[in-house]
Amino acid sequence: MLQEQELIEATQDHGFALKLMELLVIPTFVLDLNGKVLIWNRACERLTGVQAAEVLGTDEHWRCFYDLPRPTLADLVVQGRGAEVHRLYDQHVKRGDDGNNSLTAENWCDMPRLGRRRYIAADASPICGNDGGIVAVVQTLRDLTDEKKAQIALEQLATRDGLTGLANRRCFDQTLQAEWHRALRQQQPLSLLMVDVDNFKQYNDAYGHLGGDECLQRIAGAVSSEMRANDLVARYGGEEFAVILPNQSLKGAAIVAERIRCRVEQLQLPNLGTAKQFVTVSIGAATALPAVENEANQLVLTADTALYRAKHMGRNRISLTNEAQA
């Protein structure tokens, strides 16, 4: 009650400013030092679908943004927990050098009342009384959902193959370098599979390019189905796929490769242009325990060599860097 009275006294000569805050087109709410809502303007009602009467005088404003309890940016400022912003928000900035730092952050919000997630940018700043002490915290909000979705779409265009939805060559190259460096730091093995569709030219000749596209999509799905969460499947080029297997031994890579080979064979995609009658893949596997920087390309060359060996041995099979290690 004392904090609320201090806020009133601090703003008693600024009634117009308070009215302006209420009418702002920018969604805005104000918390007292107990974390209870003092102001919830009309723009905030429109953004959240929650009327001011439902939250004024309560500390339940988090329910307007999230399904589970968690602090808003204003709560972090009120509670002096600005250091936690990095853990709770996707993007964040601390502003100010004193103990009452303002905060700027962005993240996805559940928006339970509206039933749809929104990407919200927020700014939270302290309101100070005549003596310089904090009497409340104001938070403003911006709905950046459309911009965020556009950004995600652009990022996907830059890293995804348009036909299969897998990672593209650019994403593969970047990920392989990153995984190489991580394997070097952690002294863990890094395995790579190169997967090539057998006799794909004959398939295209028999079924046309649209049929070939559908074939690649089906195979992409089959390869992806055998992956762990931290593995990466990429369309390396044409009818060739690459699979990065972090912290995987050659023996483990061979097991994954054989599962992929069997999964593609089980699709029973007809290929009348070949003696085997169905579409198959050949796979080359290689493993390295990185010892020096920037040698990831050698892993690709080694896996490629193993792939060519599988082709020369009759296709529809896997070949390892060192057959004795299988």
UniProtKB/TrEMBL annotation:
CDD domains: GGDEF (cd01949), PAS (cd00130)
Top-rank EC class of the record's enzyme: transferase
Catalytic activity, as annotated: 2 GTP = 3',3'-c-di-GMP + 2 diphosphate
InterPro entries tied to this protein: Diguanylate_Cyclase (IPR050469), GGDEF_dom (IPR000160), Nucleotide_cyclase (IPR029787), PAS (IPR000014), PAS-assoc_C (IPR000700), PAS-like_dom_sf (IPR035965), PAS_fold (IPR013767), Rev_trsase/Diguanyl_cyclase (IPR043128)
GO MF assignments: diguanylate cyclase activity
GGDEF domain location: 188-323
Domain PAC: 103-156
Documented EC number(s): 2.7.7.65
Domain PAS stretches: 19-71
Gene3D superfamilies: 3.30.70.270, PAS domain
GO biological process, one term: negative regulation of bacterial-type flagellum-dependent cell motility
GO CC entries: plasma membrane
PANTHER family (UniProt xref): DIGUANYLATE CYCLASE DGCM-RELATED, REGULATORY COMPONENTS OF SENSORY TRANSDUCTION SYSTEM
Protein name, UniProt field: diguanylate cyclase
